[in-house]
From TrEMBL:
<dbReference type="InterPro" id="IPR043129">
    <property type="entry name" value="ATPase_NBD"/>
</dbReference>
<dbReference type="Pfam" id="PF14450">
    <property type="entry name" value="FtsA"/>
</dbReference>
<dbReference type="Pfam" id="PF02491">
    <property type="entry name" value="SHS2_FTSA"/>
</dbReference>
<comment type="subunit">
    <text>Self-interacts. Interacts with FtsZ.</text>
</comment>
<keyword id="KW-0472">Membrane</keyword>
<dbReference type="InterPro" id="IPR003494">
    <property type="entry name" value="SHS2_FtsA"/>
</dbReference>
<dbReference type="GO" id="GO:0043093">
    <property type="term" value="P:FtsZ-dependent cytokinesis"/>
</dbReference>
<feature type="domain" description="SHS2">
    <location>
        <begin position="7"/>
        <end position="201"/>
    </location>
</feature>
<dbReference type="InterPro" id="IPR050696">
    <property type="entry name" value="FtsA/MreB"/>
</dbReference>
<dbReference type="GO" id="GO:0032153">
    <property type="term" value="C:cell division site"/>
</dbReference>
<keyword id="KW-0131">Cell cycle</keyword>
<keyword id="KW-0132">Cell division</keyword>
<comment type="function">
    <text>Cell division protein that is involved in the assembly of the Z ring. May serve as a membrane anchor for the Z ring.</text>
</comment>
<protein>
    <recommendedName>
        <fullName>Cell division protein FtsA</fullName>
    </recommendedName>
</protein>
<dbReference type="InterPro" id="IPR020823">
    <property type="entry name" value="Cell_div_FtsA"/>
</dbReference>
<dbReference type="GO" id="GO:0009898">
    <property type="term" value="C:cytoplasmic side of plasma membrane"/>
</dbReference>
<comment type="similarity">
    <text>Belongs to the FtsA/MreB family.</text>
</comment>
Length: 419
């Protein structure tokens, strides 16, 4: 019997590091078999705005998350796939073309690889600080025929590709590698979170019609746009829910953790029939002063301008591309990440973009519960790992390595346990 493919995905978030272990069930759905999470106060995860700011803290937290997911799963894992974000992540479109090599001009995997490399070299030489992390073919062109998704086996003289390249900062990637290596598991792949979140929440219909996926977490906002069933645009803003919490704390002069609670419990970006704007709630003060009461409408007046500001940044960025909102984005916006839980955020986006907005919850997952917007990136990384699983092993890069690393890790673990 074929060995079950198991993937562990880790999402290096600014508020929480989330780890999921999963495989595919008989229906092709992802079954979540292990789950670990560490939630931190601002800056305490070692990660801020998607960037690793404290290697030791991040390493310790990664280790804790892996251990608790393993405890759930009941087995040790040896390799992980990591989702990451940060302002240094962005995307661009390139194209390439090659002459089909085979004798009968039948397109093979080798031609696909050559044309991919050809498109990738168009952005080279890159500065030492930049690196192509993922090359996503948008579609292929065979001779005059455009928009072909699966060219292998087809006949043609000239093969072209339109590609979306995702780039990131080399040092940030090295920091991820350092943390994972210290934990003693093998880093199988890294997946930029705009891509991961989109993979988790959009379905085929949405990408065919065209959609914007926005994942707003605590410290970053990841953006991915699909046009004509292909990834067209990716970007990351280094701003997210933390700034809203900070605004609440500053204006209401209340501690950050209380502001966070208030945002989650009473926060709204848009007053509608589901919210009683007159509803009063208590705001704890600092410095021994007496608590006060304010209304949800007053809270909305603090939250809304910041959300509008972020939405307007995204709007302007996308308006500066060739995307035509009404023509290319039939499925509108899919809003995900923890901040998608904020009441009224979807309605405000609807107004600003004049597009329909849906809340993005991970699709096609069973087992342990991850059907919440904050799990989109981790589920997407898991999905990516499972979809590309065979490729990692075909490349022959990882044979024996995980076992070796695990053995070394076990050796050190035993050493400490025996002390
Ligand atoms: N019910 C809620 N109402 C309002 N905001 C919420 C709610 N639940 C979570 N959030 C906000 O979502 C954010 C955390 O989301 P998430 O877990 O997706 O972030 P992260 O992945 O750790 O960070 P990032 O992706 O930015 O690096 C926080 O700002 C939190 O306050
Ligand atoms: Mg996130």
């Amino acid at each position: 019997m074929e060995e079950e493919k198991i993937v562990m995905a880790l999402d290096l978030g600014s508020q929480s590091i989330k780890g999921l272990i999963g495989g595919l069930d008989e229906n092709g759905n992802i079954e979540i078999k292990g789950k670990g999470e560490i939630s931190c106060n601002v800056g305490n995860c070692g990660i801020s705005s998607g960037l690793i700011k404290n290697l030791e803290l991040t390493t310790n937290n990664i280790e804790k998350v892996i251990s608790s997911a393993e405890a759930h799963f009941g087995k040790k894992i040896e390799e992980i796939w990591v989702g990451f974000s940060g302002r240094h992540v962005d995307g661009l479109n390139e194209h390439g073309s090659v002459v089909v090599s085979g004798r009968d001009h039948e397109i093979s995997q080798d031609d696909i690889e050559r044309v991919t490399v050809q498109a990738k070299t168009k952005v080279e030489p890159l500065p030492e600080t930049r690196k192509v992390i993922k090359e996503i073919p948008r579609w292929f062109k065979i001779d005059g025929e455009d928009k072909i998704k699966k060219p292998i086996g087809m006949s043609g003289i000239k093969l072209g590709v339109k590609m979306h390249l995702l780039l990131a900062n080399t040092q940030q990637i090295k920091n991820i590698e350092k943390c994972v290596n210290k934990v003693g598991v093998y880093l199988n792949d890294i997946i930029p979170n705009p891509l991961a979140s989109a993979l988790a929440v959009k379905d085929k219909d949405a990408s065919e019609l065209g959609c914007i996926v926005i994942d707003m977490g605590a410290g970053t906002t990841d953006i991915a746009v699909y046009v004509e069933d292909a990834l067209f645009y990716t970007d990351v803003l280094d701003i997210g829910g933390n700034i809203v919490t900070k605004d609440i704390a500053t204006v209401l002069r209340t501690p950050r953790n209380k502001a966070e609670e208030i945002k989650r419990e009473y926060g709204t970006a848009f007053l509608d029939d589901y919210v009683d704007g007159e509803e009063m709630f208590e705001v704890p003060s600092v410095g021994g002063r007496k608590a006060r009461e304010i209304t949800r409408e007053e809270l909305c007046a603090i939250i809304r301008p910041r959300i509008e500001e972020i939405a307007n940044i995204i709007y302007s960025k996308l308006k500066n591309t060739t995307i035509n909102f009404q023509r290319d984005l039939g499925a509108g916006i899919i809003l995900t990440g923890g901040m998608a839980n904020l009441h009224g955020f979807d309605k405000l986006l609807e107004q600003i973009f004049d597009l329909p907005v849906a809340k993005g919850i991970p699709k096609g997952v069973d087992g342990l519960d991850v059907k919440k917007p904050e799990y989109s990136s981790s589920v997407g990384v898991l999905k990516y790992g499972l979809e590309h699983y065979d490729e990692y092993y075909k490349r022959g890069l990882f044979e024996d390595v995980p076992t070796f690393i695990r053995t070394v890790k076990d050796f050190f673990n035993n050493l400490f346990e025996n002390k």
